[in-house]
Amino acid sequence: MDSVPIVKEIPVLDLGQAQGKERAVVARQILKALEEYGFFQIINHGVPQVLMDEAMKVCQEFFNLPMEEKVHYAKETETLYTSNPKHYVSEEHQYWKEVLEHNCNIDGEDQNTWPSNPPKYREVIGQYSFEVRKLSKIILDLVAEGLGLEAGFFGKEHGQRMFVNHYPVCPDPSLTLGTGGHCDPNLITISQQQVYGLQILKNEEWIGLEPLPHAFVVNFGLPITVISNGKLTSVAHRAVTNTTQSRTAIGIQLSKKRMKRETRTATPPEDTGETPVDRRCLLRRERLATNGSGISTGESLVPIQMVLELTGH
Fold first, then answer.
1. Closest by Cα among 202, 204, 233 to 219
2. Can you tell me the mean pLDDT for 275-302?
3. Would you list the DSSP string of 204-239?
4. 129-153 pLDDT, tens digit each
5. Half-sphere exposure of 311 toward its Cβ, with a 13 Å CA cutoff?
6. Which of 46, 81, 95, 271 is most deeply packed, by most CB within 10 A?
7. Cα–Cα nearest to 56, from 104, 128, 107
8. From CA 278, how far away is CA 110, in angstroms rounded?
9. Rounded to an integer, what distance in angstroms lies between the CA atom of residue 179 and that of residue 198?
10. What is the DSSP pairing of strand 12-14 with strand 79-82?
11. Quick one: CA dihedral 155, 53, 19, 21, positive or negative?
């Protein structure tokens, strides 16, 4: 795998400024970041640093559990642990990661499916997911304002799901990927990362994003193309491994519906309708899947009707 530059220009936005007179400025900064990179980091976001540290700790403790305990959750319907490459399959790369994923909706009904070990997992992740949900509303409102949409455009009823990707130390990263190149099908993803490994696709080349301590990385999924009438797009990204330290990334994704694992991807219908927005969404995925940038050629596309359902429109 070729060397990828770490780019310092990927925007870092101070969300604290959105509480005052600079709100419109922050909204414009978010849109510019999405137009230029599709990703940005946020600081002064309101989620306590202690809570972020605790969330990362309990997730790492889970992955340090004995394998026989972790595989118990591979049999659950609402909580999934896996250490195989079922998320992104490719003939070109081997994948080097473990995944824990589960719903974390605001009603709390999902918590009884979460891991009971580590002992503090449910308590900490319950608080964490609540705080990140509040943060997501702030960001969504700012994006709506920046696009000139009515207040509350994105609504309040979003399904919320957490994905924790753990990438162990890899003896030869040149032979593996952590996660293959892909665009997210959900509305927004807010992720916490401590160790470098995230790469995004810009101008047909991969560039690296260096995570800041206690910052969140934000990106939008395919629905933003429809919502913005093509002004914004979902940007492909992937994760790489390293030889010196393990890496754990906590991502919380929101969609209009309560999220179910089996609805993350879908095969497009034979007749796409070929309206301008339909083709833009589908052709972007086709181009990304075949441009030789390490994105699986077998990746499923997300049809336009699914995008509209995810946005509630």
1. 233
2. 37
3. TEEEE--PPTT-EEEEE-THHHHHTTTSS-PPPEEE
4. 999 999 999 999 999 999 999 988 9
5. 18
6. 81
7. 128
8. 34
9. 9
10. unpaired
11. negative
Q: Label the pairing between strands 237-239 and 198-202.
A: antiparallel
With tokens 């964490």, the residue in question is 128
